[in-house]
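pinging the channel bc i need a second pair of eyes. not urgent but kinda urgent?? the chain im working w is below, pasted from the shared doc
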Amino acid sequence: MKIVVLAKQVPDTWSDRKIDLESGLLDRAASEPVPDEINERALENALAFKDENKDTEIVVVVMGPEDATKTLRKLLSMGADSAVLVSDAALAGSDMVQTARVLAAAIEKVGGVDLVVAGNEATDGRGGMIPAMVAEVLGLPVLPGLDEIQIAVDRVSGEAVVDGGALQVSSGYPAVVSVTEKTAEPRFPNFKGIMAAKKKPLENWSLADLGIQAGPEAASVRSVMVSAAARPPKEAGPKVADDGTAAAQLAEFLATNRLI
């Protein structure tokens, strides 16, 4: 079986993320770039299947800047077999539709893919639609937002939380799935894995390699950031005086704001 894991390089979750107010885009140079944690969980699910099925091939695919090779080497050290970085100047500021088109083209170029595994949403943009869009472009079934996933030789299944309960879903191959942070805890790369990752195949593809066009001039319809503003500073809330009327003050505040 061949599994593609979609990943993304994002600013460190624990750092102070900043928005470039001129472009409206995330300032990716403001903090250390790291693999998105949700993608590590997606990879762990694929690796768990490979642990029991040694003939499985796992390819990690990332669309991002040239320095995203750091993220790919980290994921290779966890156990992925090879990696692909799609990087092109025309892809800067891509919206979700363009991103999905490029990732779908990369998956087709990898070839022979049985299963695509992704996180349900990135921690920087939080769009949450890329896996479904990729599935739409490829014409494949999608199992979105799985809290639990079971990858078998002939099919993939899992459980997704929906309003009022849980939904059991399954599909034969090929298919696309996305997982939530409730799935497998990612393994830590060991020394052997880190050393092996340096020799594993890592290809760099451009838009020309994929045989597609992208960028503002190639998109007939695209979403564009028109404005951005810094988060306003927090203001002090009303204070309750400790003069024996606290209960009355609280009741009045709640009633005035229609909270009771």
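so DSSP finds seven helices and 14 strands in the chain. and The two ends are 57 Å apart (CA to CA). — does that match what u expected or am i reading it wrong
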